[in-house]
Structure formats: structure tokens, C-alpha cells
Amino acid sequence: MSVEIRSMTAEDYEAVERLWEASPGVGLSLSDTREGVLRFLDRNPGTSFVAVRGPRLVGAVLCGHDGRRGFISHLAVAPDDRRVGLGRALVERCIGALRERSIDKAHIFVFAGNEDAVAFWKRIGWGERSELVMLSRYTA
Ligand SMILES: CC(C)(COP(=O)(O)OP(=O)(O)OC[C@H]1O[C@@H](n2cnc3c(N)ncnc32)[C@H](O)[C@@H]1OP(=O)(O)O)[C@@H](O)C(=O)NCCC(=O)NCCS
Asked: What atom of ligand 1 comes closest to residue 25's alpha carbon?
């Protein structure tokens, strides 16, 4: 059965969450509750995608932008469906959606030590930013 890539919807949340939870390399936080993800999809319509084969969800990615830069996160492909181009195809859909919205650059954050993911991103044309350090804080 062929794989379809389509926009992520609210109805996908439970299956997407199961895939993320089974995917080391995807960092889940309180922002990834159903409410948090649906808020993200509302703010960023049409830029996040899932890959489905029949009834089975086999890939997912979040993508949004702030009007200036694009941000891709939570890319995951089910273990049995890796290395056949789904990760690349999901990212290409994100890039196309950002381009349509006149966003000319996107970022991805990868956990230090996730060498497989770094190899994947480099293989599909992304460049490592060794001159940058990421810092974060909570607003509360
Ligand atoms: C990273 C991930 C999404 C890649 O998905 P995928 O569907 O297997 O990737 P693709 O098949 O589209 O691969 C695209 C290219 O990257 C290469 N690639 C994929 N995984 C690779 C790896 N671990 N090491 C080296 N190259 C890799 C593929 O060989 C392919 O190259 P090719 O075009 O020359 O054939 C998948 O391994 C995954 O879900 N990992 C767990 C979650 C995770 O770490 N996500 C990343 C968060 S930043």
C-alpha cells in the first residue's frame, strides 16, 4: 500500500503522540500535550505533515514560522518505514510550505549525540551551525 503525505490535523494527535513517544530523538515536553500541539497547528495552518499508509500513521513533523524564519521539529518516521525516503519527503513538504509563505530559511534543533539524525539532516542538505549556542528559559 502506498504512503500518502498530507497536512497534520487535530484528529491525528493520538497517533502522532504514540509515534513521538516511541521515537528516541524526539524531545517531548509540556508543550506537546494535545492542547499544545493543536494550538501550534492553529497558529501554523498547513505547514505540519503526517505520512500515512492506509490506516497507519508512519511519519510526522511539526513546522511553523514566526514571519521571518521557519522552525521544524519532532520529525519521526516509524522504525519499519525508515530509509525509504519518508523523512526526506516530510521535510520537503515543510520546506515547500515555508517557501509558499515567503520564508526563505528554516532551523532545526537536534539533541547533541543524536548522530543518526545529524547524518540524516546533513544528507538532505542542511548545514551544521557550529558558531551558535542555544540558550532557553521558562517564562514563568
Ligand atoms: C531521522 C529520521 C526521521 C530519518 O527518516 P528516514 O525516513 O529514515 O529518512 P530518509 O529515508 O528520508 O533518508 C534521507 C537520506 O538520509 C539518509 N539517512 C537516513 N538516516 C540516516 C542515518 N541514520 N545515517 C546516515 N544517513 C541516513 C538516507 O540514507 C537518505 O539518503 P539517500 O537519499 O542518499 O538515500 C528517522 O531515522 C527517525 O525517525 N529517527 C528517530 C527520531 C529522530 O531522531 N528524529 C530527528 C529529530 S531532530
From this structure: 44
Domains of the chain: 3-123 (3.40.630.30)
- Distance from the alpha carbon of residue 83 to the mean position of ligand 1, in angstroms: 6
How far CA 137 is from CA of 60, 61, 70, 134, 140, in Å, comes to: 27, 24, 20, 11, 9
Closest ligand 1 atom to 109 CA: 48
SS3 for 64?
strand
Q: What is the pTM of this model?
A: 0.98
- What residue ranges line ligand 1, CB within 6 angstroms? 23, 25-26, 75-77, 82-88, 108, 110, 114, 116-117, 119-120, 123-124
Q: For the segment 61-118, what is each residue's pLDDT rounded down to a tens digit?
A: 999 999 999 999 999 999 999 999 999 999 999 999 999 999 999 999 999 999 999 9
